[in-house]
Amino acid sequence: MATVITEREAGLSTEIETLADLLHRLGDIPLDRVRFHPAPGTATEKDVERVPAGRSRLVELVEATLVEKPMGYFESRLAFVLGCLLENFVSEHDLGIILGEAALLRYRPGLVREPDVSFFSWRRFPKRKLPKGAFLDMVPDLAVEILSPANTRREMARKRKECFSGGTKLVWEIEPKTRSVAVYAAPDKCKTLDENGVLDGGRVLPGFRLAVRELFERAGAQESE
């Protein structure tokens, strides 16, 4: 069923009066990630659906503004490799579904996010039937973000808060530059794993274990700067 968004829900917060206010609310992100068409404060979910495929096709809807989701080819490679490993595991154990970086997730009316990889338990889908429509109206059980240089700490903190407030149980933030993974069981409860660490699915994906080093080795080595 389509979600009806009121004018109040689609508009900017009354706390936002200037562009600087908007950027701060978005997490102090670079200005070049904010789309100007449609104008900030006027974008809707329909605008997210209308974004054409291409270099900047990945956009999220936040504060009635289209925000480009930065993702280079190597970040996409990491997401794909991890997504394949998770898909194999959840399929083998019949746990749920895995979605990729282009999946449109409506966390609430007017807030659309696109985690790089996400897991949803079959318990979330009555009779295991996937809903129709461009948007999935729920936050993931597990959300994975592959960090890019254009991501900011405040932006990621906001994303984690949105996830956990909606019921997410686990967030992995993967940092390609340091070849490490920050594991969150709550918005501010973090354990950082280096290449010697092992990702554990915990209660979300019981039995899943993946060495951080293996993830990066499977993705392939990058040239040094």
Write a concise keyword list for the protein shown above.
disordered N terminus; 2 domains; tt1808, chain A; 25% strand; 6 helices; three-stranded mixed beta sheet; 13 strands; 225 residues; single chain; alpha+beta
Commentary on this structure:
There is one protein chain. Helix 4 (73-93) packs across helix 6. The chain is built from 6 helices and 13 strands. A hairpin with a 4-residue loop joins strand 9 (170-175) and strand 10 (180-186). The chain has a 6-stranded mixed beta sheet. It is of the alpha+beta class. It folds into 2 domains: 7-68, no CATH class; 73-219, tt1808, chain A (Alpha-Beta Complex), CATH 3.90.1570. It starts with 6 loop residues before the first helix and ends in a 6-residue tail after the last helix. 27% of the residues lie in helices and 25% in strands.
Characterize this entry briefly:
The chain has 225 residues and is of the alpha+beta class.
Number of strands: 13
How many domain modules? Answer: 2
Task: From the 3D structure, determine the CATH topology of the largest domain.
Answer: tt1808, chain A
Report strand order across the widest sheet: 3-6-8-9-10-11
The ordered string of helix (H) and strand (E) elements is HHHEEHEEEEEEHEEEEEH
Total helices: the number is 6
Radius of gyration: 17 Å
